[in-house]
Amino acid sequence: MKGFKRKNQFFSLCGLNCGLCPMLLGNYCGGCGNGNQSCTIAKCSLSHGEIEYCYECRQYPCERYQHIDEYDSFITHRRQKADLEKAQSIGIEQYNVEQQEKIKILSRLLSNYNDGRRKNFFCLAVNLLELSELQEAMRQVQSNDELSALPLKAQGSYVTEVLQKIADRRNVNLKLIKKK
Fold first, then answer.
1. CA–CA distance, 90 with 110 (Å, rounded to integer)
2. Could you give the count of Cα atoms lying within 13 Å of 91 in the half-sphere of its Cβ?
3. What is each CA distance from 29 to 4, 34, 85, 109, in whole angstroms?
4. At the top level of its lineage, which domain of life is listed (predicted)?
5. Which helix (H) or strand (E) is 109 found in, with range?
6. What is the DSSP letter of 56?
7. Are 53 and 13 in contact (CB under 8 A)?
8. Could you give the 3-state DSSP secondary structure of residue 120?
9. What is d(CA 106, CA 104) in angstroms, rounded to the nearest whole number?
10. Exposed/middle/buried for 71, CB within 10 Å: 0-12, 13-18, 19+?
11. Please, are residues 54 and 41 in contact by the beta-carbon 8 Å criterion?
């Protein structure tokens, strides 16, 4: 969008974790503020003095956030408000440190266990699970001495199962919620 630029390419103005997005990872999107798609929230930011994050606006949460987490697009929207609140609470620098760790985990998952069919699942899991849960999953995966002897598809299935069990403990649905 013309005139809209972002310093932070990993966390969007509206609370999406762009660094964990399959569109950005696949080079289909330049990230928030680098793409050429029109965004109503970016237009709103420009009209409010180019705020960096929606939580900085005195009208936040506005009507745009009423139903923002009901449906997903190619990236989950379910944590937008919670992630904005977390970034506001712990500070954007600390939030970015956590996101960098999540990006490293996602990178490991995609480069070591993606058989060509797990990219969206891994992106969703890393978005929705807490960093400590992802670290727990990675420890469990790394402690499995027999995993590397399995075919890639079986390795991916095992890792998916580990992540799914952790998600099930918290009743986290690791499927995108699409409009019907």
1. 28
2. 3
3. 15, 8, 25, 21
4. Bacteria
5. helix 92-113
6. G
7. yes
8. helix
9. 5
10. middle
11. yes
What gap in Å lies between CA 100 and CA 42, rounded to an integer?
Answer: 24
Cα(61)–Cα(43) distance, integer angstroms: 16
Residues composing the chain: 180
pLDDT values of the chain reduced to their tens digit, one per residue, 180 residues: 667 777 888 898 899 998 898 888 888 877 776 655 678 888 888 888 878 899 999 888 888 888 888 888 888 889 999 999 999 999 999 999 999 999 999 999 999 999 999 999 999 999 999 999 999 999 999 999 999 999 999 999 999 999 999 999 999 999 998 887
Q: Quick check: helix, strand or coil at residue 115?
A: coil
